Amino acid sequence: MEQNNSLPPFQGLASPQGAMTPGMPIFSPMMPYGSGLTPQPVTNTNSLSLLEEQQRQQQQQQQASAQQAGVPGGLGQTPQLYHSQTVTTTTLPGNTPLYTATPLTPMTPITPATPASESSGIVPQLQNIVSTVNLGCKLDLKTIALRARNAEYNPKRFAAVIMRIREPRTTALIFSSGKMVCTGAKSEEQSRLAARKYARVVQKLGFPAKFLDFKIQNMVGSCDVKFPIRLEGLVLTHQQFSSYEPELFPGLIYRMIKPRIVLLIFVSGKVVLTGAKVRGEIYEAFENIYPILKGFRKTT
Amino acid sequence: MAYQLYRNTTLGNSLQESLDELIQTQQITPQLALQVLLQFDKAINTALANRVRNRVNFKGSLNTYRFCDNVWTFVLNDVEFREVTDLVKVDKVKIVACDGKKTAFETDVV
């Protein structure tokens, strides 16, 4: 993955200055998300999604070549990078081609960054994705509960069928209106795949299920800064963003304004980030909080 | 009205077969057979609730589950049924379970 290390032209907030884990995409607020790597997704045996993946790969390659066209002359060596990378990169945990589908902005290498800032070198791992989709038809929940496997339906307690699948390991809430919530996936692509699998289950039971308005509603990530943090200090200086009640909850709740992400920061140095609609918000929020946390490192 | 859950057991099926034979040979009416089965339901439910004391543990891997109309249906694989005295292993077992708590419609009239 030597291609990654030859990306110094990108001076984003999150730009790697050599200290980057090989194979990690560079996420900077100024950069289109498709920059750097366009890793191929893990191949799966699901024929429906295989077709999707092929279409997506085609899209990526089109976009990569479109990106090259849109790149200003200043970024000399990078055009080749895109070319080779669309062909040769291997799967990375949690990286998603869906991400590259955002409209491309011309790449401006000028991202105002604090002169001495380096990327943290830590990438938050996605732990949970919540998404919704509309199957587009009314459903008879009792039929679904009786005929589908791994389904629970207790209308007295909750007006939806709770169904689970093992791959990707997710849970879906299926409502009689035809709307469905899919939770538990570890990546955007897995969430979409899982939702499609549930839709296929419903379809096989005889309902005219469609796959309308799939949308990721929430993404949760977590990481470890590897040093203890003085939460008291943090709440004193950032009181307009933080709320820390150790008697109520041992973590500090930091509500970042831009991007709009809620972070749970713990004394151990573990950080949970939630409220994101796209992966980049998680990464951006973490890059924003990391220097602040470094400033509140416990020294004893 | 007790659970009719136990009609599909070795005991319940034998009873149903015997009743069917009697109906075939015109010795009893279908209505009587139905009453017999209802009485069987009450009897087996109270017997299991009051007269059974032993305990069996089982452990296996869950293949599928279902919960609908307050009835749980499980299919387990590679299950070991363990009682103090002995051990039985099976490849596949289907468990149908109804709520043990007394519900509104159950009556104690014998």
Automatic annotation (TrEMBL), chain B:
Describe the location of the Transcription initiation factor IIA gamma subunit C-terminal domain by residue ranges: 59-100
Domain of life the protein comes from: Eukaryota
- What's this protein's name? Transcription initiation factor IIA subunit 2
Q: Which UniProt keywords apply?
A: Nucleus, Transcription, Transcription regulation
Q: Where in the cell is it found?
A: Nucleus
> What gene is it encoded by?
gtf2a2
Q: What does this protein do?
A: TFIIA is a component of the transcription machinery of RNA polymerase II and plays an important role in transcriptional activation. TFIIA in a complex with TBP mediates transcriptional activity.
Q: Is Transcription among the key words of this record?
A: yes
